[in-house]
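Section 5.1 Outputs to date
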Amino acid sequence: MTPTTTLQIQDLALLLRLGWTAEERETPQLITLAITILFNQPPTACQTDELQDTDCYDTLIQTILAEFHQQPFKLIEQVAASIHHFIKKNLKQEACVTVNLTKKPVIAGFTGKVCFSYGDNQQLLGLL
């Protein structure tokens, strides 16, 4: 039986020019990400203890920050999908990726948060 291996990145803060109108996109908004990466096979680093044998979370975080910092988006759905595809493209090995995005919108009378998730269907990939 192959062990389940998951990498989670929590509370990754990102400033984006986000909003439906151009006026709303003028001021960067803070979103937070929770990213879950479920590897199809355990990274070789589980055996070797060598950085080159895994997907380095520091490198992944830095590339996400550099790629998306203040990039304009109209909708949170597009943000989550874009980050998901970017992560999948940059991983060394095949994995299921889920991006959970949280935003605290400025809406009169609303003090909560809005969350959106975009990810691979793990059941379709035969992982569950």
